[in-house]
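Ligand: pyridoxal-5'-phosphate. Inputs:
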Amino acid sequence: MIPIAKPLIGIEETEAVSEVLSKSQIASGEYVVKFEDNFRRYLSCEYAVCTSNGTTALHTALMAAGIGPNDLVITTPYSFIATSNAILYVGAKPLFADVDRDTFNIDPNKIEALITSTPEKIKALVIVHLYGNPCDMDRIQEICNKYEIILIEDCAQAHGAEYNHQKVGTFGLASIFSFYPTKNMTCGEGGMVTTNSEEIYHNAKKIINHGQEQRYIHDIIGYNYRSTNIAAAIGIEQLKKLDYFNGKRIENAKKYIDNLSPEKYATPLVRNNAKHVFNQFTLKCHMDRNQVIEALDKAGIGYGLYYPKTIPEQPLYKNLGLTTPCMIANSLSNESISIPIHPILSNHDIEYIIDTLNHI
Ligand SMILES: Cc1ncc(COP(=O)(O)O)c(C=O)c1O
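Predicted complex:
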């Protein structure tokens, strides 16, 4: 069986965790501080705050940016549910702008149309660089500046991705990453908030630690969203390997793009000014997707449907009256399929996958 995702954990991570355990300081401490510092340097940004996972990082980022009850926040219908749920956590209301058919990312034209057709002020925009492919940042930044909207980037799937040679996670007022094992680098569970704003940084630090700056003095509602030295020790080692992991993903993607039948599948669009880091390699099938699923199942090849139901179509969002028809996202969710792209794939695995798909 070729799995759809597999983290690459080496001896370095094992030794780093042993070192932490031998020092007995297993909760948050010096390793977390080092991981934050290394991560912000990697991105070339000013501040990073390590959290327990990507979802808590999103909640923290939105709170730190002052997004709260009844604020309107535009986001994508096509993402993992955490993106939009974090908007609900702060009591704000998500509005969905449909995606671009070629990139699966939120469409700037749809964002602008939604802003101009909504009588109330839009407070923020939460974008997702889906599958590791950067959004159209020139247009998105232009729109946020024009309408004075706070930009939050969800980079949970895009560690190391770049737009015009600038790393994603450095464009927004605040950005977030996830280190879940299916991501381009992992800590087991982990997240990061990144920002160039000192204010956001201080807010985030406080939010993840029960709203205290001074020990046992709490002036806002905070949470325990802290990470641990154990997770951070893994993250420090994984970050050293991130460019290598991404290089392998990009190499694997090129083999698929060059060899998969264009009559049968549309492969992901990569823009000239973007570095796509292929957290997922997602095909649009020009045939009934069930045929593809059946063939992959039979051949022992893992696959993923990201996502079989768009966020506005989820029962939760329907029950909350937050459904907006997003036709493109809905059609992509019916015709797309993700195939293995992780760095552990051998040449033989990739040839086998290509051969299987081209013979359907
Ligand atoms: C786009 C996106 N946002 C947020 C998250 C949440 O991250 P985590 O699973 O670490 O809480 C994920 C994780 O799957 C994700 O893919």
